[in-house]
Automatic annotation (TrEMBL):
Protein name: Zn(2)-C6 fungal-type domain-containing protein
Keyword Nucleus: yes
PANTHER family for the chain: STEROL UPTAKE CONTROL PROTEIN 2
Domain of life from the UniProt record: Eukaryota
Residues annotated as domain Zn(2)-C6 fungal-type: 40-70
Species of the source: Clonostachys solani
UniProt xrefs under Pfam families: Fungal_trans_2, Zn_clus
Length: 433
């Protein structure tokens, strides 16, 4: 087994212990402070980072594919006008001017988005056609998935602007991966993503029985987009993909809302509920096969490094839930009793199911959480043939290996072996285009 060369960079991990004590601190690079905006978006305030307050989507939310919510107004001020938004916004920001549907127009740094035009209409027809003929099928793992990703979305696209623009985003990415959209892809994706996120945010704020399916399907497409974005993110120095986890995790609340609307019966079962049931059945089957022993070492509390971390009931619950998920997927993979498509679906849905406390531990760069995350990314290499996943799993495992303290690297033996084995394997069953 070959390991990537260990990193010589000083480690900057912070351990938080139950008794309030902390181990000796490693020397860290000086932190750059800045004046935090009181009127920035929700996400930037939560992350305590500088928000450039671009409308409708700030630079952080746009880069991360997050919903950008402005819920505070400048003291003594009034909501920004279109003129102000255009001045504050970045080059890639798109402003949607509401009005009658035919009167809407979009302003963007690119000429094609400044107004409705034949060029833009032809582009969007191309993107829509490509999604329904190729992209949708490339995401589906089986015939059941094909029904949701192609047939259902096709019937809904004309009823939801957010869903339509999310389709444009994913179709553009897919064309680029196939080498059929050279040059313009980043600009087009940024433009359509800004529009899709703004409209999706509005739909979420007004979610109801009548639009919950549209909201859920839009969330699904944006989830796939978030996986594709991991392929190009910088990994040196390593920053855990906590924003990605939170973005995908947040989509689960949309499905939960749809479930609440219909759990009492008496109404036609929405598409969102059918998708939840399909996933639940698959996870139950995987859970029954979980050996509960292959990854037992992830819960070990024996060595000194393992003892130097928070370990209250909430921590244990989060870690145990994560290990059980990993065990279920791995057992299904080894036993070959579960359809490969079901295994793929379960792996892709992990961020929607992850415990909130686990996400917090990843954000804190806790070694145990990062090690578990590396195990997940190792399993993600099962889906390496999917264009929207590619080598994400392998890249993240190698990066985590270099990022964790050396005392924890023995816990990464299995992920390193597995990704190297998957990398060297040839052929295999193809699930995606």
């Amino acid at each position: 087994m070959s390991h990537p060369p260990p990193s010589n960079k000083p480690n900057e991990l912070t351990f938080v212990l139950v008794d309030g004590q902390q181990p000796p601190q490693r020397k860290a690079a000086p932190k750059l402070y800045h004046k935090k905006s009181k009127t920035g978006c929700q996400l930037c305030r939560t992350r305590r980072v500088k928000c450039n307050e671009a409308k409708p989507t700030c630079h952080h939310c746009q880069r991360l594919g997050q919903l950008c919510v402005y819920d505070r107004q400048a003291p003594g001020g009034s909501p920004s006008t279109d003129k102000e938004e255009e001045t504050v916004g970045t080059e890639s920001a798109v402003v949607v001017d509401e009005g009658a549907p035919n009167d809407r127009h979009y302003r963007h740094g690119s000429g094609i988005f400044k107004r409705e035009s034949e060029e833009r209409r032809r582009l969007e027809l191309k993107l829509l056609t490509h999604y329904f003929t190729e992209t949708g099928r490339s995401i589906a793992v089986d015939e059941e998935g094909n029904h949701f990703w192609v047939n259902v979305i096709c019937s809904m696209a004309s009823e939801s602007d957010a869903l339509l623009y999310a389709i444009y985003v994913l179709s553009t990415l897919h064309l680029n991966r196939k080498g059929q959209f050279p040059g313009a892809e980043p600009e087009v994706v940024r433009a359509y993503l800004s529009i899709a996120l703004q409209l999706h945010q509005k739909d979420i704020s007004e979610i109801s029985k009548s639009n919950c399916d549209h909201v859920c399907m839009t969330s699904n497409i944006l989830r796939v987009y978030s996986f594709a974005e991991l392929q190009d993110r910088p990994l040196d120095p390593y920053e855990p993909p906590s924003e990605w986890l939170r973005m995908v995790e947040s989509s689960s609340s949309v499905f939960a809302k749809a479930w609440d609307f219909y759990k009492d019966g008496g109404n036609p079962e929405p598409v969102a509920v059918k998708m939840v049931k399909t996933l639940s059945n698959s996870l139950r089957s995987a859970g029954r096969r979980a050996k509960r022993e292959h990854f037992a070492y992830l819960m070990s509390r024996k060595s000194e490094c393992e003892m130097q971390e928070s370990w209250d009931n909430r921590d244990v619950e989060a870690y145990e839930a994560t290990v059980m998920f990993l065990e279920g997927v791995w057992s299904s993979y080894c036993d070959k009793l579960e359809p490969r498509s079901s295994i793929g679906r379960n792996v892709a849905c992990f961020p929607m199911l992850v415990h909130k406390c686990f996400v917090e531990k990843v954000e804190e760069r806790q070694p145990r959480a990062l090690v578990m995350l590396a195990h997940y990314f190792a399993l993600l290499t099962i889906l390496r043939e999917a264009w929207w996943i590619g080598d994400v799993g392998q890249r993240e495992v190698y990066a985590i290996f270099n990022a964790v303290p050396s005392a924890w690297r023995s816990h990464l033996t299995w992920p390193m072996q597995f990704v190297n084995k998957e990398k060297e394997s040839e052929g295999g069953s193809r699930l995606w285009g």
